[in-house]
Every structure is written in structure tokens, then in C-alpha cells.
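F.,

This is the one I mentioned.
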């Protein structure tokens, strides 16, 4: 297939064409030509539009495609379609499946399935067997089979003794442990942020201390082992402060935040919207404002969608019984571009792919002649409305329904596959 991208601003720090507007011709998955003008007749497919930007493919580092075991929530096919619609060419899948991704065979299954999908699938291997937090999984074998990082997903490792062994284990191959920072012995029945709103709603709360304790503990463990850890779903300003200090002392600590923690606050739960029942919980507006500052000052390395699809019956019921999480791949970029309209295109690429590729040692694709095509095309100024019923995901549990955003992913090109987001 021959695809021609017309008049796109190139956002690639490794490209000799950085900051220029060019036509890009892709043939059989290879960038064949980059020039000021390329005749339309040379291509079978055209990608055109006003205000087009192109960067190397974006990466999401924490998603659940639910397969195997929970295909009624999502499948690899529907999850990949949602990722492509969100501009992502690469997605890390958490191990919270049935069976758990805690063995070489499970990692190989997911990597093999990736070949037929529009996006690259990168399994996150479990830290402990069956996510039980007791005995280490076979991380070395999983790493050799293609696991990109290691995490117990939605069941963060609670035992310091287990985690320190895991950090020592992955150091042998310079691996990364990923944690949602949450001490679940603090307010284990908490349903939302502990504060004024939880009191008004009569719901048990979860304080930010449960996050901060794990961040402080895990930083000490990372210092002891001289290993690498990535915190995802960070919500506390105190956590951000701890991470800044750890980095200043030379530790290899990185972090990511979700779009919905930046966009919503606990006050949005006043109508008991179960789509906003997420993990970690939404925090007060003053806190999310401080998280936005951490984006601007560079403390936050990545935007992570925390795409957690749930079928109708898991969300449309009493708040206390609803499952945690919302879908997020299709709206991740739009939320960030809407909240931060002045972010530079290079900063957008850092947040949505550049930094993740460095942290997790993925190949760094280039927008150069004769390079393999792995491209995300987006329009920072286009206004659009997210209609949940049109979502590519199998599940529709998004709190962003009917929101009007500025900034839309337009297409991805992965090798010889083209996905256009109409």
C-alpha cells in the first residue's frame, strides 16, 4: 500500500526534518520519500487536512485489553482499534487477565497476536505469580519473550520484602518495575478521595497518605537496590515532591499521570457517576491543579491512559458495587491538548511516546527516508466531540461522553497498516 501524508509539520527530535512542513510517502511500510511536494498520483491513500502534525508513534504504558479471560469487556481487536483511534501505535498491557500474564507462554501469546493488529502489543509481565503478592514470577523468562516491564497491575505489591527481591531480580537485565502507589491497608474500603465531598456523599474515603506511604517506601527500596521503578497513576503533590527529591539524588525514578486525574476532581462525583469511580480515586481540584504544574515543569514523564474497560453490568449499579476504572485511549491526547493548549509539539511527543521509549527501551523510530513507518498523525487545533456510542472500545464506560475537545488524533501508520480516525 502507498500512503501519502500531505503537508504535515514534522515533530521528531531525531529527524533532520524537525520543524518543517513536508509531504511523506510511505510504501510497503517504509518511508520512501520526504519532500516539500509529492504528487498525489503516486499514492493509493491520501491523508490530508488543515493543521496536520506527524510524530513517531505514540505509546500508552498502562492499558487492559481484558483478553484472555474477560473478552466480554474488551478484546485485543477492539482494544487495538481504540488505541489506534487515540493515536497510539504501541500499547503496554497489564497482566490482570485470566490466566494472568505471569509466564513465558502468556507473553509469547500476546506478542504473536500483535502481528495481526493495527498496534504493537507489549505485555507487562506480573511481578508475582497470579498477582498474589507472595512469590516472584519468572520475570527473566518473560523478559526474554518480550515483556516490556513488570507490574502486578491493579494489585500493587504490598510486601516490601517481595518488592525488594523483585527490584534486585530485574536489575540483572536492567528491567523496570511499575507500581500504582497504594497501600491498601490504609482505608481498604475507601471508594473515593477522603475529604469534604466524601463526607457529603456518605461514602468511605481513601486519603492521599495511602499513596504517599508507598511512594516513600518504594523510593527507599529503589535506593537500596539501585534499581529502576516507575510509578503510574500518581495523584498526590507530596508524591511529586518525593519523586523530585529522589531524582535529584540520582535515583532512576520515573512517573506518569492519567488524563482523567488532570481533568476531573472529586467534586464531579456529586451525582454518583460510576464512570468516575477510578483507581486511584479522583482528588480535589486544588490537587489536580498541582498535578498540571508537574506536567509543565517536567516531573511527569508520561501520560498513561489507564484504559480499563467494563461491561454495562459492572458500571450501571450502586456506586459501592461498581467496578473501578474507565476507558481512556481514545480521549487521552484530546484531554491533554485541551487542558494544555500551549504545550509544544515536542513536549506532546515526549509525554505520549518519546519518554516512554527511553524509559522502557523501545526502539526510537525516525521520520527519515528509508526508515520503517511508525507514525502518529494529529491535529492540535481541530475541535471534535467524543460520542461514547461511537467508541471503538467494546465497553462504553467513559466519563468524557459528549465533551467537546480541541486536538484530535487523525491517523496512525504502523508498517504497512493504515488506520484513519474519521
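My design for it:
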Amino acid at each position: 500500500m502507498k500512503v501519502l501524508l500531505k503537508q504535515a509539520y514534522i515533530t521528531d527530535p531525531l529527524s533532520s526534518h524537525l520543524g518543517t512542513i513536508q509531504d511523506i510517502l510511505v510504501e510497503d511500510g517504509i518511508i520512501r520519500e520526504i519532500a516539500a511536494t509529492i504528487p498525489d498520483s503516486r499514492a493509493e491513500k491520501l491523508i490530508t487536512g488543515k493543521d496536520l502534525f506527524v510524530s513517531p508513534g505514540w505509546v500508552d504504558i498502562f492499558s487492559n485489553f481484558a483478553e484472555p479471560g474477560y473478552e466480554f469487556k474488551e478484546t485485543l481487536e477492539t482494544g487495538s482499534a481504540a488505541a489506534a483511534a487515540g493515536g497510539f501505535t504501541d500499547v503496554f498491557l497489564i497482566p490482570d487477565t485470566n490466566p494472568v500474564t505471569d509466564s513465558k507462554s502468556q507473553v509469547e501469546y500476546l506478542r504473536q497476536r500483535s502481528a495481526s493488529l493495527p498496534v504493537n502489543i507489549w505485555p507487562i509481565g506480573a511481578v508475582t505469580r497470579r498477582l498474589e503478592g507472595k512469590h516472584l514470577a519468572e520475570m527473566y523468562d518473560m523478559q526474554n519473550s518480550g515483556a516490556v516491564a513488570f507490574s502486578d497491575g491493579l494489585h500493587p505489591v504490598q510486601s516490601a520484602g517481595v518488592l525488594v527481591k523483585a527490584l534486585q531480580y530485574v536489575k540483572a537485565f536492567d528491567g523496570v518495575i511499575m507500581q500504582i502507589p497504594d497501600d491498601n491497608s490504609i482505608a481498604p474500603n475507601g471508594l473515593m478521595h477522603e475529604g469534604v465531598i466524601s463526607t457529603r456523599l456518605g461514602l468511605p474515603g481513601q486519603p492521599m497518605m495511602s499513596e504517599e506511604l508507598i511512594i516513600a517506601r518504594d523510593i527507599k527500596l529503589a535506593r537500596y537496590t539501585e534499581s529502576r521503578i516507575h510509578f503510574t497513576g500518581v495523584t498526590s503533590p507530596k508524591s511529586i515532591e518525593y519523586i523530585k527529591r529522589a531524582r535529584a539524588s540520582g535515583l532512576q525514578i520515573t512517573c506518569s499521570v492519567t488524563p482523567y486525574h488532570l481533568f476531573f476532581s472529586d467534586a464531579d462525583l456529586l451525582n454518583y457517576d460510576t464512570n468516575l469511580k477510578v483507581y486511584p480515586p479522583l482528588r480535589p481540584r486544588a490537587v489536580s491543579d498541582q498535578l498540571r504544574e508537574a506536567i509543565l515543569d517536567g516531573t511527569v514523564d508520561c501520560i498513561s491512559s489507564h484504559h480499563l474497560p467494563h461491561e454495562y453490568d459492572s458500571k450501571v449499579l450502586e456506586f459501592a458495587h461498581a467496578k473501578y476504572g474507565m476507558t481512556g485511549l481514545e480521549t487521552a491526547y484530546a484531554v491533554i491538548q485541551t487542558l494544555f493548549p500551549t504545550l509544544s509539539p515536542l513536549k506532546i511527543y515526549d509525554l505520549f511516546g518519546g519518554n516512554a521509549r527511553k524509559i522502557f527501551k523501545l526502539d526510537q523510530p525516525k521520520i527519515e527516508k528509508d526508515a520503517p513507518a511508525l507514525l502518529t498523525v494529529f491535529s492540535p487545533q481541530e475541535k471534535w466531540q467524543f460520542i461514547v456510542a461511537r467508541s471503538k472500545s467494546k465497553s462504553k464506560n467513559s466519563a468524557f461522553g459528549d465533551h467537546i475537545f480541541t486536538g484530535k488524533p487523525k491517523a496512525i501508520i504502523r508498517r504497512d497498516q493504515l488506520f484513519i480516525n474519521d
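Residues 2-53+369-394+405-420 form a domain with the Urease, subunit C; domain 1 fold (CATH 2.30.40.10).

Talk soon.
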